Amino acid sequence: MTAQTDTRDMVSAAEWRARIDLAACYRLIEHFGMSDLVYTHITLRIPDAPDRFLINPFGSLFGDVTASSLVTIDLDGAVIHPQGARVNPAGFIVHSAIHMKGDDAHCVLHTHSRAGMAVAALDSGLMMLNQKAMQFYARVGYHDFEGMALAEDERERLYQDLTGHKAMILRHHGLLTVGADCAEAFSLMYALELSCRVQMDVLASGQPYRTPSDELCEHTARQLNGFPVPPREREWPGLLAMLNRVNPGFDQ
To answer: For the chain, which end, N or C, has fewer CB atoms within 10 Å of the first or last residue's CB respectively?
Structure first.
């Protein structure tokens, strides 16, 4: 019996679908240049086991993650299945802070991208320089750097700094988004990452720039966040189809 068959037979249909989505999300982060070797994570709450979560095995590159290779952990980051799997408990500190109290934060996506870390180092934070960025107008939290996120007592501060938002910039660290599912968390991260890349390009140009009024930014944010079709129906099917062409096997 293969590992894929063994895992699929052991989990519910809902968990298997969640595993496929999460594996795809890992590969999409790699495809779009937002991965950092093995040093960030994407976690997903198991739909029919709300105190359990899926995470990649530590040491696996994002582009190699499969549905069956994902590891089940509890809220403390302890491995439940498969026994002996390696995970990075310290890497789950940031995620557990959100999962513990955010009932609708089923997927937590964290990156250390070049553009994201650059914006995280700027006093300005995210600037309203383009339409993508305006999606996050007054809708992004900031968490001050406390060193490597290893201390459990930082979890409360992480959660408080995110409260009311679905995106957060971790000062001198990186980016974080949360969603009701992988599709939403990825869509938010894609927009946030692209906003950061554009911002650094504009600043690097050395040319004068302008930002719209607060009123126009808020108007645009409401338009973008009020889109009636969710990412799972809007973008996710096409992204999965693209993955099946360029990096198949995530659903194994």
So the answer is: N
